[in-house]
């Protein structure tokens, strides 16, 4: 029997992974302690999602555990011996990391180390998929030649038309403290794969999104933007004229890639996982798209100050993923992603 352990199981990616593998008939165990509510307050609370998983997924068991608890993690792995691990737990905000650097590093770097070492000790043949981030590249993508168009920034070099490859530098750039802690975890995942021959991969996510995201201003770009529109609030654009570009990938397509990796794991791999060029949008373009769905104009203010280390234009080059796993591809186009998130917020918030 396949026995999957998911960290951060009540979050966006974790809960999607739980649902996906539960539907495949796997035993699924989820670690989550609702740390997101501690990080972001009541709007970041994920207990609602945990409740849905317990009600809807018959093969799922929730485990209340903090991944910083090394003894607890080791004990769980010794007892459970999972056959597969999907590590999606994290402190995800580069803004918050600056005010809580110890919590950020302890969750992202030390927590990942705890999980890797537990895997090495008790289930070294179990594939380990880690959700990393494109912030490992720091602000180095901003040094590329960029062209300003009417609604978005665009790569000026044709070599980057399809986006950033995994060979792009992660050195000599400003990452934010969050990006630095994720670099530590990303490299450690690679090292356990290369040094100990563990089947591991680090998935450097673009904008991960979907209807189960508890998006807040400090994290969850698209979910938060749509929430503001649905509720008639006011969105703040931070710098770059609102033309900064992100590629957006639905959590379902992330879960599908993790399944493909589990089928044919490699040791110490890295993949840029995002929506690619077809699922890219600027903030201004996102305003128009969501307004076209809800019929509500987007209320926003503009701040000249951009977020530290923020990308001006980031698109994930998916060619390596698709070469290694040709059965995988994007199944949720951008319009569908928007429509699903709108429907979710309308159901959860609008009375």
| Radius of gyration from the alpha-carbon trace, in angstroms | 19 Å
**Main sheet makeup:** 7 strands, parallel
* Overall form: globular
Rounded mean pLDDT is: 95
Number of helices: 12
Percentage of residues in strands:
15-25%
Number of strands: 14
Helix content: 40-55%
Strand order in the largest sheet: 3-2-1-4-5-8-12
Which secondary-structure class do the elements indicate? alpha/beta
Low-confidence stretches: none
Give a structural overview.
- The chain is of the alpha/beta class and 351 residues long.
- It is built from 12 helices and 14 strands.
- The chain has helices at 12-23, 35-40, 47-56, 70-80, 94-99, 101-122, 176-196, 221-231, 251-263, 283-294, 319-324, 334-349; strands at 3-7, 27-31, 60-63, 84-87, 128-133, 146-148, 153-155, 200-205, 207-209, 234-238, 245-250, 269-273, 280-282, 299-303.
- The strands form 4 sheets. A 7-stranded parallel sheet has the order 3-2-1-4-5-8-12, sandwiched between helices.
- A hairpin with a 4-residue loop joins strand 6 and strand 7.
- The N and C termini lie far apart (43 Å).
- The mean pLDDT is 95.
